[in-house]
Protein: Lrp/AsnC family transcriptional regulator
Organism: Haloarcula nitratireducens
Amino acid sequence: MSAESTERRILSVLEEDAQASYAEIADRANVSKPTVRKYIKKLEDEGVIVGYSADIDPKKLAGQSIAMVGMDVASERYVEATRKLKDVPAVEALYTSSGDHMLMAEVRADDGDSLAAVIEEEILTLDGVTAAHPSFLQERLK
């Protein structure tokens, strides 16, 4: 088997279950535990694996609202605005985008009003951010 396909199998298991043990990953990827350890260390060192997380169903999360916020940013302020957005505590994840907006952010707050305040007071006030379009997440389907 090629190293590339081994990496893909290991990553596939981790994407399905970030809490899987090395033994579970080895069994499901059809490799040994030392191979799993070696590849995971390599992938972490190379920045391919940047963290481990839990999937959250927003509907079942009491006392918290989650939105995906599409943002438009002035091109001359893009780098500065991106750096500052990374520092906003309510921004859980930040992505570049090739769709309708230059950036997409997963934003979390206690409720809809708090989330709106984050957008108005912490995101739209950043130099270079010209628009923010939230889509509130309702229910996780998969």
Summary: Strands lie at 65-73, 91-96, 103-109, 129-136. Residues 116 and 134 are 9 Å apart (CA to CA). DSSP finds five helices and four strands in the chain.
